[in-house]
Amino acid sequence: MTTALAAAAAFDGRSAVFAGADVCREAGFTLPEGTGRPVFEDAVWDFTDVLGLPVQLALCTRRFDFAEIADERWRLVGKELVLAMLAPQHPAVALLARAHRTVLHLTSCAGRLDELIRFCRWLSEHGVSSLAQIDTHICDAYMAHRRYVLDEHGAVVGEQSPGTRRTAAQVVVDLVNYRELFTADRVPADLRPWGGATASAIAEMPSGRTENKTQPVDDAVMQPMLAAALFLMSSMGPHAVELAWQIREADKLSARKARGLRAVHVAPETELAELLNEYTDTCTALPMLADHHVADRLANGWSPDDPLLAVATGVLARQAGVTQFEARWMHHLRGPLVDAVASVGVKEVFARDAAEITTADTSSALPWTLPLHRLQAVALVGIVRTASMIVLAAASGMRASELMELRIGCRLPLEEPVPGLTRYRLASKVVKGQPLGGTDDEWVVIEPVYRAVELAEDLHDDHQDGALLFGRFAFSVRYKWFRNWVNSPAGHRLGLAPIPDGQVNLRRLRRTLALEMAYRPGGVLASKLHLKHIAVATTEGYASRPGGAQAKLLAEVNKHESDRNLDLVLEEFRNYQQGILPAGPGARSLTEFFASIDEQLDPATATAPKTQRSDRDVLNLLTKRAKVLHLGPANYCWFTDPSRALCLKLAGTPTADRPLIGMCDSARCPQATHHPCHRPVWAEHAERTETFLGQLGTTRKTERTRLQADYDRALRVVAEIDTANTAHEESS
């Protein structure tokens, strides 16, 4: 640090520590041969070509423009700070007591630089010409400046997020922590802003330990969104693939940059006549202009009654081998064009004879789309691609970075470990928390997810293995387009339910999947996708790669499942205290357990001065029972003793450590209970069974006997639940 201290007194524009340094070499980045390498003195450090950068990293984040810092000394401070964060093992950086010991991601460094640029600009505006002038009052003033959102009149209209406030505090903390490294300017040696607190503490950043900040997608939004995405995938997907092929083929002939076109100075009367004859001979309508081009013609003086107003003359010219249709040719070519229009008419180019599909509400069969202009066709293909993305994200839980790393050919060969059971796998990379370049990983998924990737590959313009499947995308924008299309007349025509307003992003979809799996068997996903299959696939993915991405997702699911069980047990215990008792074969055992807990909470029977009264204390007593709770479709299973589990006896696996919920007969199992929340399921089952009984003929005696027993059982369960509730109501 002696060299840096001496250089601060006589600044010559060069860094005393990093002068002439190869930035990528210091940071450990690899560049392709022949690529320009940023040097420390460069005003812009361009990392665009660095090998291994995640696809998710935006191009603007890969270029660090230090020229935005006007003061030359502060610009050097910015360069030294950023390189120190990229190269923490550098000898000059490793000696700093409070410097970062791990490499900061490029995204983090870009964020630090952006805030430093903002801070330097604010200092200049407030008359601060040297970092040595910064004191605690200036630090507090900058935090106040970054804390609030102001309108055009300077009035406070809101407060910035804790993340923004933390970034603002962090730039000051960095200038303190790396002070000894800087050559040209430094904050005072005795500066301890905010008493030395961390940036997170200064910003009052929530820890996230009590609750996940990412909220799930609202059910009212998730239901129609997922239904629309699955419908577009299954019913419209194959037709969209054909439409995408038609667009590519049409572009080869009629796009402005199509090969083989020539520029001519005289009207191509012969070529156009041959083309128009082909149209009339095949009874094919002439291509139609899009509405905005028609509006342009009207603005340029075309008559609304002109028969050629909507004719795409430019497309016809290129189909005839000419680059463009000159306006001065219209005098010579109008006659043949008018005759052709009178003979075959004018129509949109794409999807003229669309195949019929059954609408989403199964009310009718309609062409899967109306005829489309080119931009409309391209947009519709994009909507279907977004539908595949939604299904993929919602049913696999892949992060945005993992979706962006998917490539053509990521669908691994199907496996059939057991006859009749197929394993579907995808290959991608895990980027979050991994070294530069990411880590290869696999996802075991369900068939709809596998088919979603297959559809996305078929819709891709480049079918070569290794091409990015989705590339870098803005999901919020794509979802907005998707929602607008579903809510448009096009979606209404196909019987799709409108999607209400509500925030949807990939983090929320992942959170929703985790909660749905934890709170199964109910939920929106369970109604549209086989949730049990998703749970099995995720578990299998965890088992095959214990350290992989699905292991982290499953850990999140298990945490939610544990919280859910505790909440349910506490709710039922509170119901017991209010006199709402469970029903079913296991009701007596559960009631006795709750009674024993209630005795421990009774101050009159307590043997020690301390009694448990808060929910936390009660949960501590209920935790053991919560660990054996499993949710059935219409019951709770308290799996306390495997030897008593009816499902294991029926399956011949009495030593299993988990119940077979799919084989549960809760009306007979001694460990099953029914509660008021289960009554609607049993009542609906009884109603449907009664309907089936009424439709059976007199000769179907065996079927009638089976259904009658099923119906009687459902009525008995409903009656037991009602009896338990009636006893509570009478007592209250």
Short description:
The chain is mainly alpha-helical.
What can you tell me about this protein's structure?
Helix content is 50%, strand content 7%. It is built from 27 helices and 14 strands. Helix 9 (219-254) crosses helix 14 (374-396) and helix 10 (269-281) packs parallel to helix 13 (330-344). 33% of the residues are buried.
If you average the pLDDT, what whole number results?
A: 88
Unreliable runs: 1-8, 608-612
Structural class: mainly alpha
Radius of gyration: 34 Å
Record keyword descriptors for this entry:
mainly alpha; 732 residues; single chain; three-stranded antiparallel β-sheet
Topology, pairings included?
Elements lengths: L1 H8 L13 H5 L16 E3 L16 E3 L6 H15 L4 H4 L11 H20 L10 H12 E3 L5 E4 L2 H16 L21 H4 L16 H36 L14 H13 L4 E2 L3 H9 L13 H7 L10 H15 L1 E2 L8 E3 L6 E3 L6 H23 L3 H5 L10 E4 L2 E10 L8 E7 L1 H13 L15 H12 L2 H5 L12 H13 L5 H5 L2 H14 L4 H29 L9 H15 L13 H12 L2 E3 L4 E3 L7 H6 L20 E2 L5 H17 L5 H31 L1
Parallel strand pairs: 5-6
Antiparallel strand pairs: 1-2, 3-4, 7-8, 9-10, 10-11, 12-13, 13-14
